Amino acid sequence: MTPPDHIAVQDDAIAARLTPIADPLDPRIADYRDVRDRDLKGRGGLFMAEGAVVLRDMARSARFAFESVLITQKRVPAMTDWLAALPDAVAVYVAEGAVMDAIAGFPIHRGILALARRGEPIAPQILLDDAPAHALVLACFGITNHDNLGGIFRNAAAFGAAAILLDPQCCDPLYRKALRVSVGAAARVPFARLGPGPGDAGNACTLLRNHGFEPLALSPRGTLTLAQAAAHYQGRRALLLGSEGPGLAPDLIAAATSVRIDMAGDFDSLNVATTSGIALHALTRQAGG
Amino acid sequence: MTPPDHIAVQDDAIAARLTPIADPLDPRIADYRDVRDRDLKGRGGLFMAEGAVVLRDMARSARFAFESVLITQKRVPAMTDWLAALPDAVAVYVAEGAVMDAIAGFPIHRGILALARRGEPIAPQILLDDAPAHALVLACFGITNHDNLGGIFRNAAAFGAAAILLDPQCCDPLYRKALRVSVGAAARVPFARLGPGPGDAGNACTLLRNHGFEPLALSPRGTLTLAQAAAHYQGRRALLLGSEGPGLAPDLIAAATSVRIDMAGDFDSLNVATTSGIALHALTRQAGG
């Protein structure tokens, strides 16, 4: 069967861009070897992203520059448009699925990986200055679980949060798993690190207030319900989230307006990503209609 | 150092109940071998639960009967009260941590496993009849992911949902991982399976309406917002949840009142467990204050 013309043309245009890889030990794809080990060690200014949805999302952002791509032959047809739009300097390696799995050290079901360069770190002040008048931002403290941080970014994107601030203890939202769980949102929602100095967590509320953001700290013993906070605060707001278990530090809660999610009483337990979704929905509902 | 008297007495009382296990191949603990393989095969009328929180929760329920317990020596002191309350017929095996890990086939960080008998299946009609006048129940369709189903049960418990109905495609909430992610809620919130016959999913709305429950189907194109649904329907309500991706079947949405969660517009993506949390919070807020 002869493929239709337009497919053939696409394939020709892309074919020149592809570097076939047959040997898992080929030095050109050394960066893709033993992906999980490298995830743990970190990659300096680079990070690894996977899956078509995440990579398409990243390509729409000016914050990242792709360094290279590793794709299975089977996935090329579905990604020709995306591959064609990559700058010429980006190497595109193509391998059989089994070779790709041997390179990565485990099965890459999504069939596409890319190495990208992080943007320069942004100061929290710049993100806060740039936010709209009724912006909602998130500030995360001690979120060390990649599933939870990924889920928080996903919810932030779904409800249009303007930015996410992360204390020094939070894990990396561009870690491969966090990025995947976020369905690419970690590459969409701007984020910045809060300073690492002692007392800086407590100063987060001062920083937020100086930029006109009301800090709303989620706590089981909060003084306002979410609905009351949504009714009272409709300008710039920051939602403060702590890790499950310890929660937010008492000094942080004391320096903020504390807000609670009313529950059934005898089972006071919500996942922190779910908590962020409930609070984002409640606080953005007024604006959203 | 001599331990205080009351600790010594507790230990003596418990010591007689413990059966030490030194050999991972001891036939008495055959049910605990290769836990993950057995998880996949299923255990018939039995299920495996892990961790102190889940097991303490289960002990408060009349729905389950423990068959046996496997605990590390290190964990015994923290669980003496729970162990002492077990019926005499329940065998309690105690092993060194390394032996327990060798039995299970992977590290059991929580240090305690138990084999329990499921209660008799309950008919959905009975759960719906028994629910209070303003009850909110959940009905899940095609939730095959244990993390998601566990998260849904956790949220149901947090917001006091009266029951959960599961279509035949939903995974088992008493599967070890779902139970763990639910923080024991899968053993607290009553659940029932909807019939497996063809067309039964569509009949779910008839079943619900016959019992006075308004079926509210979550859909991105729902006609009401969550807030509107919360204001309109304050009697018995059922929240219908479909799997991420395909969502609820069109016939199910057509037979129900469809409800949407308004989002930012360009990133219409929420995890189904997070969705359940947002909807439960919105629909129970009126009653909860």
UniProtKB/TrEMBL annotation, chains A, B:
One of its GO terms (molecular function) is RNA binding. It holds the Pfam family SpoU_methylase. SUPFAM superfamilies: alpha/beta knot, L30e-like. Keywords: Methyltransferase, Transferase. Residues 136-281 form the tRNA/rRNA methyltransferase SpoU type domain. PANTHER family: RRNA METHYLASE (PTHR43191:SF12), RRNA METHYLTRANSFERASE 3 (PTHR43191). This is rRNA methylase. It comes from Saliniramus fredricksonii.
